[in-house]
Amino acid sequence: MKPVVAIIGRPNVGKSTLFNRMTRRRDAIVDDMPGVTRDRHYGDVRWDEHEFIAVDTGGFVTGDDDAFAAHIRLQVERAVDEADAVVLVLDGKHGLSPFDCDLIQKLRGVKKPVFHVVNKIDDAHQEPALYEFYDLGIETLYSLSAEHGYGVPDFMDALVAVLPKNEAPPAEGEIRIAVVGRPNAGKSSLINRLLGQERLLVSPEPGTTRDSVDTVLQRKGRTYRFIDTAGIRRKSKVDLKLEKFSIIKALKSLDECDVALIVLDAEKGITDQDIKVAGYAFERGCGAIFVANKWDLVDEKRLTPHKFAQQLQDAARYLHHAPVMTVSALTGLRVAKLFALIDQVYRQFTTRVGTGVVNRIVSEATERTEPPLHKGRRLKFYYTTQVAERPPTFVSFVNFPDAVHFSYQRYLLNQIRSETGLDKTPLRLLFRQRTGKIDFAARKKKRSRADRR
Hints:
Blueprint: E1 4-8, H1 15-23, E2 41-47, E3 50-56, H2 69-82, E4 85-91, H3 98-107, E5 114-119, H4 131-134, E6 141-143, H5 152-162, E7 172-181, H6 187-195, E8 213-219, E9 222-228, H7 241-256, E10 259-265, H8 272-284, E11 287-293, H9 305-315, E12 324-326, H10 337-349, H11 355-368, E13 373-374, E14 377-378, E15 381-388, E16 393-398, H12 406-420, E17 428-433, H13 440-452
Parallel strand pairs: 1-3, 1-4, 4-5, 5-6, 7-9, 7-10, 10-11, 11-12, 16-17
Antiparallel strand pairs: 2-3, 8-9, 13-14, 15-16
């Protein structure tokens, strides 16, 4: 495993900004409102030849009125326990706080490297702001600006120098799994159950998860990266700027994932918004699994898993290839079976089919059901090949590509799906005009002239 670095501190000192600076991405939401980050947020960092995992945490406070304060403190403590090094971020602009003193005292007993970083020091002229922090008896302070990059290289050099080397053999290809759905469908609870620990905050209050949170799990030699996302509500229901940004990040996670777990509240049944969320996954071409959560609250005499799956696939016909699994994150019912299903979907999602196989399938399909006419001329499918994976994408060269009706395209896709066994992944079939056509008559005439010479 890569070394782990936990970033902690009181609210609004710039932890997420530093996290973004270290990972060179904008994965953590940054806002002036305190309390934006509530869960642990993981990101890969590479500095020179060193690689490690940074963990962004919620603002650590004590005696706060926020209902999530106790949960956030627990998440911070667990992040420190798991880490190989700890970075305590202090606010050089607003100075010391009693919360800073509490955290410094708590960290004195930690038997691992602790870096005290004074953030919001934009240049050398602001270095005198460090004086009051030295009064706490801290031997080494690192002044920097997470927003502008001042002082960050020196800090990063010192940090990677104390981290253990990553000598573990590389795991099999990582599977990125976005967990999406309506608010309060049980997305975070499901991830916690899959991980076997309370890694993410869970609350009956909708909107607990605000950011898209990455959590990595290694199981049986394979790496799974679960991305917990904010609940996606109808646009008319979204008011807060922060929630709008959270939903945008949830949709972006679908662009970057291999498999989407579309979580539904089985007790409340299938809603229009569930189908809308499924449509987002379909548009982005990722593998998909419908996960009907809270099945322990459903009366199976009234609704069986098979009947629920039929209703769901009737409502979302464009995702008829997506498997349906009924689970309970609360009791653990069938949750462990999701790993095998994720593996199946990912394997099909990344499959490459030989050109000869694809051409045979398309040729036999066009013989069984002859293509329609276009302006009195029969459509001809000359050649078909796979051009991409994730999802498997095929291109067929046709004499009139724009004239292929979507119903015939669907027929050909179904034939490819049936013959290759790719029944759990989206497939794409594109049509192109054949180029470089050989004019055999002209070639024959040219040879005849040459012979006469």
